[in-house]
Amino acid sequence: MIDLYAMTEEELSAFLASLGEPRFRAKQILAWLKTGAPLSEMTNLPKSLREKLAAQCTDTLPKVEKKLVSKIDGTVKYLFSLYDGQCVESVLMRYKHGNTLCISSQVGCRMGCRFCASTIGGRVRDLLPSELLGQVIAAEKDSAERISNIVMMGIGEPLDNYDNVIRFLHLVNDKNSLNIGYRHISLSTCGVVPGIRRLAEEAFPITLSISLHASDNETRSALMPVNNKWPIEELLAACVEYYKATRRRISFEYTLIAGKNDTEEGARALAALLKNAFRGTDAPLHVNLIRVNAVEETGMRAGSIEGANRFADILNSLGVVATVRRRLGSDVNAACGQLRRASGGKAHEN
Ligand code: SAH
User: Fold this and answer.
1) Ligand 1 centroid vs 97 CA: distance in angstroms?
2) Closest residue (by CA) to atom 17 of ligand 1?
């Protein structure tokens, strides 16, 4: 079966031509698909074409399995089920400048970060390009609101699903589809260095976020096994390369975990590390501090808000811009991976 959500306008029009159909139908079909309408509702297409397509194509979108709406800030947490019953999460966040959707890139994750709920059961499979796009379309359809920004910070490691993520970037950017600009998309990685290098070569002007979480290799390796393969020096060298190729600001994520990586010396070491790595470039340095969301299985907990503010103050005083991130949707299980785990990973048969 051919996946309609996996094609750009150019590809869809070539496919239609191969069926002996006029190419202009591609634009019509994409205009429907981006609203989440199934083939059966595409009423400006001849019935014969709809039937022909239905016989050889799928138009499956992620299905809302569960939805939690924050009473505090309106953040919506979706649990989506996929064609095979596997589930992933997306989070819709409302900001003054528009809506941001945080999407998942894999079912589960194999990166093994010690504080993260998404990795506990390992990786089940990669998400398809159409499932990456489908999360955005399904969330727009359900909320009846436009999504203007996308962050790949949900379940999974996007650079461990590289080809599908790149394909998704093309699909979501297609002017006949959602037409979301690369500058409105961020990708977050735990530090898969070859992926960062490839991304630098492709020069997509997306924003790269690096989950750094420590300023020395010993601490980082203890929290993030990926650091054994690609240590901090290699990671930051790849970041510098990425900045030089794209001129896009890189943001560093730093999850503060009590007693593990949240000391004042750690803050000073972090500032020195980043300034050293980016010396000689004009890259603005930005660190997002997040107090860890406690996940029962990990035994890791957050320190005080005052401690986080102090950590930020030290970075700022040393010339590294740091902000303590506001926690959105704290009442809807917002630590990624928790809703999927609570559901047992798969949708209930129905
Ligand atoms: N694999 C990618 C994207 C998914 S994780 C990455 O590692 O960047 C998105 C962000 O949430 C990462 O910065 C990750 O380190 C962080 N994170 C994971 N579990 C967390 C938790 N329990 N509390 C706070 N942040 C967490």
Assistant:
1) 24
2) 116
The answer to whether 109 is a known catalytic residue is: no
Q: Would residue 225 count as lying in a domain?
A: yes
Beta strands 98-102 and 87-95 are: antiparallel
Q: Which of 21, 57, 87, 89 is catalytic?
A: 89
| 30 touches 23 (CB < 8 A) | no
Q: Whose CA is nearest to atom 20 of ligand 1?
A: 116
Q: What is the DSSP string of 221-286?
A: HHH-THHHHS-HHHHHHHHHHHHHHH-PPEEEEEEE-TTTS--HHHHHHHHHHHHHHTTTS-PPPE
**Residues 114, 26 share a domain:** no
Number of domains, the chain: 2
Residue closest by Cα to atom 14 of ligand 1: 211
- Segments forming the whole domain that contains residue 10: 2-58
Same domain? 107 vs 143: yes
Is residue 155 one of the residues assigned to a domain? yes
| CA-proximal residue: ligand 1, atom 12 (nearest) | 211
Mutate to test the pocket of ligand 1, among 135, 255, 262, 296 (most ligand atoms within 8 A of CB): 255
Residue of 89, 104, 115, 210 to mutate, ligand 1, most atoms within 8 A of C-beta = 115
Residue 89, domain CATH? 3.20.20.70
Distance 116 CA to ligand 1 centre (A): 6
Question: Is 89 one of the catalytic residues?
Answer: yes
pLDDT in the model for residue 336: 59
Residue 287 and residue 248 share a domain: yes
The CATH code of the domain that includes 9 is 1.10.150.530
pTM here is: 0.95
Quote the CA–CA distance of 17 and 26 in Å, as a whole number.
10
Q: Is residue 350 part of a domain?
A: no
**pLDDT, tens only, 249-303:** 999 999 999 999 999 999 999 999 999 999 999 999 999 999 999 888 888 999 9
| pLDDT computed for residue 335 by the predictor | 58
Most distant CA atoms of the chain, gap in Å: 70
Q: What is the pLDDT of residues 97-127, one digit of tens each?
A: 899 999 999 999 999 999 999 999 999 999 9
